[in-house]
Amino acid sequence: MKTAVDSVVIDVRPEEFFQIITDFDHYHEFVPEVHKVTTLKKVGNVYTALNQIKLIKDIDYTLELTEDPPHSLRWHLVSSNLMTTNTGSWELKPLDGGAKTHATYTVTISLKLPVPGGIVNSLVQKSLPAMLGNFKARAEGRFRK
Q1: pLDDT (tens digit, 9 = 90+) per residue, 87-127?
Q2: Quick one: 24 exposed, middle or buried, by C-beta within 10 A (0-12, 13-18, 19+)?
Q3: 6: domain CATH number?
């Protein structure tokens, strides 16, 4: 299992950033590794979403995500063709009187196939900061025009 944690400050309110992180069906527009996310159902504050991404290979997985707007989004794996674990969260904290957001992303993943640690570490060290940058740019582009 590999856990990764990273944070970013976004120049939008937590409520605005929360709209971006829960707009699953549009992730493919700003996260290059994402082919498609399909929200399968939403009951109350719980979503089930099918994710189709490309990292080393095509990966399909379904997550159950629970929102606590505008503070957090948490998830766990329901099923996958390649993963045995995928749990994580977005934690959002207001900064500057609520004008900005400190967002922390945490994910723990394990795969069904053995992958050398160096490859996993490289993906995490490069992919996670880039992904956070994509979310930041999307939020600031949408709400700070």
Answers
A1: 999 999 999 999 999 999 999 988 887 777 776 666 666 78
A2: buried
A3: 3.30.530.20
